[in-house]
Amino acid sequence: MQLPGLIDPVPVPRDLPARADGRTAVVGLTRSQLAAAFAAAGVPGAKMRASQVWHWVYHRGATDFAAMANIARDTQALLAERFVVGRPEVTTAQVSGDGTRKWLLRFADGEEAECVFIPDADRGTLCVSSQVGCTLNCRFCHTGTMKLVRNLTVGEIVGQVMLARDALGEWPSGPGDNVLEGRQLTNIVMMGMGEPLYNFDNVRDALGIVMDASGLGLSKRRITLSTSGVVPMMARAGEEIGVNLAVSLHAVTKEIRDEIVPLNKRYGIDELLAACAAYPGANNARRITFEYVMLKDKNDSDADARELVRLIRHYRLPAKVNLIPFNPWPGSAYECSTPDRIARFSDIVFQAGISAPVRRPRGRDIMAACGQLKSASEKIGRAELDRRAAEKEAGWTAVA
Ligand code: SAH
Ligand code: SF4
């Protein structure tokens, strides 16, 4: 079934675009791909070099082969000739009054995506994008209004984590450096721009790199993937990625969810909750988070709260609910529920024994809060859009 305004993701993985200088970017290659690329380039002791480079790049944050002290000079030179470590270019960096930071990244093809860091007393969370734009057009989400959509590559996803570490100054300078102890960036949420399960392979490989113990080393318990409900990919997400799952539920009736999350017309609430109940790894210690954006007079009644409780019980879900006050954006069609209404909704869910905290909006002043992300990538000419449409076969999607 083809929904109006919704273009299916192209399942064919896209090859990395060749760099103009002919070199291969290291960030974004899996360990085995890195070893194979070194072997193909004639790097002596390719497998061993790959382990060393991996450590320098992901553990120490090195961006220059010349700094990799345990690699011989002539090998460093060979590596520099054929490879580049690589980072996305940051075109704008903003800091909110509440400490939230937002980076606008520009990739090699000129397209842009945003990435947000949210510091808290006991943790710091990086909100990572998986696509430029999003095909899914949820009615309350700014990203969904972007016309241009493409999947981010593995390197572009991992690159967001790398540049956050750069910006926060969190690479250890050497073995005795205890920067690791006091790091601000402790958690990652795949909740930036895009639907991560529509870019499954790249998100899986990127998170694999982020979780690699001898590199960035983030535990799967500190990573959360949020989906708007791409049911057919959820089991694989549990098996092949294994991180915490968040599901953007936002409504408990077909009528309202069809309106605000159009993907619901394809995968309805019951199918979605059944997939949650079957999610590998979900249990009382690792609960599924249901995200629920509070929209005035739309999904915020007492009856909605009670139905939410009923559904969670019916499917016996190990669940917690995150109530997200709606974050407005220019032209948005909804209003945020009143604080009293949100508090009442939260109470009803809490009284049923289900945790339902209200999320404090962060970074609203710099348009960095949930659902406010939108880059200028849509401001691209008609001819360019047509060209991109022609590239669909290669794994790109353009929505006219
Ligand atoms: N595409 C994925 C992940 C990115 S969105 C998903 O939809 O789950 C991250 C969260 O922000 C989702 O729960 C999304 O529904 C919510 N969100 C989107 N627009 C919002 C807005 N304007 N105000 C508050 N939350 C919003
Ligand atoms: Fe896409 Fe998520 Fe926004 Fe919906 S809420 S349009 S799935 S980014």
Give me the oligomer status: single chain
Based on DSSP secondary structure assignment, what is the total number of beta strands? 14
Looking at CATH, the homologous superfamily of the largest domain is Aldolase class I
Overall shape = elongated
Spatial arrangement of strands, main beta sheet? 3-4-5-6-9-10-11-12-13
- Terminal residue distance: 19 Å
Supply the CATH architecture of the largest domain.
Alpha-Beta Barrel
Radius of gyration: 22 Å
Overview of this structure, please?
With 400 residues, this protein is α/β, with parallel strands linked by helices. The chain folds into 2 domains: 28-84, Orthogonal Bundle (DNA polymerase, domain 1); 89-399, Alpha-Beta Barrel (TIM Barrel). It has 11 helices and 14 strands. It has helices at 31-40, 46-59, 73-82, 154-168, 200-211, 231-241, 254-260, 269-277, 302-314, 339-351, 382-390, and strands at residues 24-25, 83-84, 89-95, 101-106, 112-119, 124-127, 131-132, 148-151, 187-190, 223-227, 244-248, 288-294, 319-325, 397-398. The strands form 3 sheets. The chain has a 9-stranded mixed sheet with strand order 3-4-5-6-9-10-11-12-13, with helices on one face. Residues 1-14 and 396-400 have low confidence and may be disordered. Bound molecules: S-adenosyl-L-homocysteine and iron/sulfur cluster (SF4). S-adenosyl-L-homocysteine (SAH) is lined by residues 134, 138, 140-141, 191, 195, 226-228, 248, 291, 293, 324, 326-327, 370-371.
